[in-house]
Give the backbone structure.
Amino acid sequence: MPRRSSGRVTLQDIADRVGVTKITVSRALREPQRVSAPLRERIESAAKTLGYIPNHSAGALASGRSHSVALLIPSLSNAVFSEIQRGIEDGLGASGYQVLIGHTGYSFLEEERLIDTYLRFGVDALILPGTRHTEHARHLLRCADIPVVETLELTDTPIDINVGLDQTAAGAAMTQAFIDQGRRCIGFLAARMDHRTQLRMAGWESALRAAGLSTEHCLTTAHPSTYRLGGEMLASMLDRWPTLDGIFCNNDDLAAGALFECQRRRLEVPQALSLAGFNGLDIVEATTPPLATVVTPRRRIGETIADRLLARLGGAPRQPASENLGFEIQLGGSL
Amino acid sequence: MPRRSSGRVTLQDIADRVGVTKITVSRALREPQRVSAPLRERIESAAKTLGYIPNHSAGALASGRSHSVALLIPSLSNAVFSEIQRGIEDGLGASGYQVLIGHTGYSFLEEERLIDTYLRFGVDALILPGTRHTEHARHLLRCADIPVVETLELTDTPIDINVGLDQTAAGAAMTQAFIDQGRRCIGFLAARMDHRTQLRMAGWESALRAAGLSTEHCLTTAHPSTYRLGGEMLASMLDRWPTLDGIFCNNDDLAAGALFECQRRRLEVPQALSLAGFNGLDIVEATTPPLATVVTPRRRIGETIADRLLARLGGAPRQPASENLGFEIQLGGSL
DNA sequence: CTGAGAAAAGTTACCGGTAACATCCATTGC
DNA sequence: GCAATGGATGTTACCGGTAACTTTTCTCAG
């Protein structure tokens, strides 16, 4: 059954050239050992000569498997997510799964839209940042019945796989580090009030309460974090609360911006003011003094996600569970 | 023709429920005006009730269009690409095209692999960073015969659409700015020797040659840029060439790292040494002094790409051309 | 009231693969 | 010498949509 010669090269084109049927070609390319060696070679060479590119849609439609997983990330420019992504790709290794990246811009609605989009694509699994989702998103995930990973933060009620760290505990631990260094008036500076920020802030509050210290010195904004913003917010806080002797910034970018502002004001860090960030990005070791931070195991989170996902995709039963990969306080020199 | 009730909801399921055929349902969802109002409403409500999720593979296979474009980016953590991406998404707006993001890690081979992957997915267009590609990648693109955008840098021989800026001219212009400020011994510091870096370096060289200055003070490495690396490389350069009075860093991250190192060494910038970066990221305005940089119109590049792409996808003929969106020298205070 | 033409809905075939089952043929054991 | 066995290949049907064409229904001019 020869075919028209227009458009892309198909299995049938190769089959015609070699003189077999397309299912044999399909086998030769997917399960080489199921086809005799000489034939396999002829097919492979014909495929190469003709420039065959498999039609993923056709394969996915026929087999019901897409061999792809979607990874939604809130920000393309945040090194936190790029390292998780790298961990996932490394962990997935040669398993044959393609990672499709979607960008939510920290918006739950956009996340919902992307979940819908990728379900249409028939991805075999979804990896979501965070444990908060819209009701409709949860509904979609329930219907789809594919492995779902929630990451970065932990939850008591995971949809499926949950790999991350206790953001609240991390916030509390860093706050305790301020207290241990003798600080008594410790502020919290945060932008982009996403859920993880809120959890860290809760940790900050609880540590202060436990130590009998005031929790009123908190400045937040919905704007995205930038260095400049860190500086501006630090300025506001110092103007408003001159007695502050420590400021816990919600991430390293803000902390670095705050430090730069201190330098401009000739305010000694940490003598006059302690600073700390969160995440353990490259910049914390580049500044003077190096910034205190909470180092999060992003790479390992990615690899763990890949590992658990491959198990589920390989047939392991769904067994909702949280996996806490911990964190590490790094004092730098700014505390 | 009723069907088994397992798995996902299909057009047929909706059709059965409403009592029409699936093509009518297909029409109601894609071209609402082609179906009578009352029927359309019943279909839409049934789709909602049943939780219908279109099967993208089936649609793409049948129609030959995927309504998606692939955007390959070298680095997920570089703000340069995230802004281009945002520009593209904004520009694409409600056109219905889905942007699939792929991560090349600055590797040509990985780019080739991703081009292959996304061609299998049947994307309607491809957006590539840079104008350099492997021979096989070019071959794949030629065969695929879909709109291709090459971006960031310019080329005389674009595959199709080319939107970017003249990296060499930008490198030369910034170098000239050093010269205009009276600098005479101007080094070049670069990491991750990608093609754009090489172009900028060529610009640096040509400007120095034109001014009769030495081009020997150049330190490069294949490692990715980090703040720390910027500091270390600056240290090496100053040790080796104590007479340097200016260092043009290949990007803002390196420049910031270099500036931090200067601060540690109590080396006055710009009095003792001028510094400049490239890109115009947030950090250049946060440091003291603010860093000189080449501001690139990333957002506008993204929007322009979207615009040209929509034209091509809408049927405009292929007309290989380069579009130069220029750049802007920002002196900051470090020159 | 009739017929032309448009609008609405249906029929059929097909997109390019894959699953499941069927067939063919060469070995092998007895 | 022949059935049993199993590896290599083929046949058929189907995945879930959409294009193109056909039929039916509705509208309205004459």
In short: Chain A has twelve helices and twelve strands. Chain A touches chain B through 52 residues (CB under 8 Å). Chain A has three domains: 11-54, 66-165+299-326, 167-295. The two ends of chain A are 76 Å apart (CA to CA).
